[in-house]
Structure formats: C-alpha cells, structure tokens
Amino acid sequence: MTDNYYALLGISNQATEAEIRTAHETALGRLAADTAASNAERAATKRELDIAVRTLTSKHTRQAYDASLIALQKGAGNP
pTM value? Predict the structure, then answer.
C-alpha cells in the first residue's frame, strides 16, 4: 500500500475533485496497458487507486487523510 494517495495518482495535494477523477482514470488506463504486471498485481493496484479516489473526493475523508499526512510528517521530523 502506498504512503501517499496524492503521489499514487500523480497529483498535488491542492488538486480539485475533477483533477483527482481525471488522474484516477489515467492511472486505470496505464494499469490496463501494463502487460508486465500479473493479474493479482493489477487487482491490488486497482483497489488502491479506487481507495485513493474515494478518500480524496470526499470532503470529510480528505480532511482526515490530509491531517494524518501532516501528523506523519511531523512525527518523522519534517517541518
């Protein structure tokens, strides 16, 4: 599982809902074209992408997610 849904989707933490959904669709397209990955790997990545888009497109879950990222950064000694 990725540490950062924004990085997984290749977007900034300021991305709009439309940008998040576009990035999700783009990532799914790349995933479908990835013939080197096994079916299990593709399925796991798709689940992760789906969780990322659901998390980041819901105002409340995105706020909680962003707060957890900030807490992790502070705990890691990052300003």
Answer: 0.86
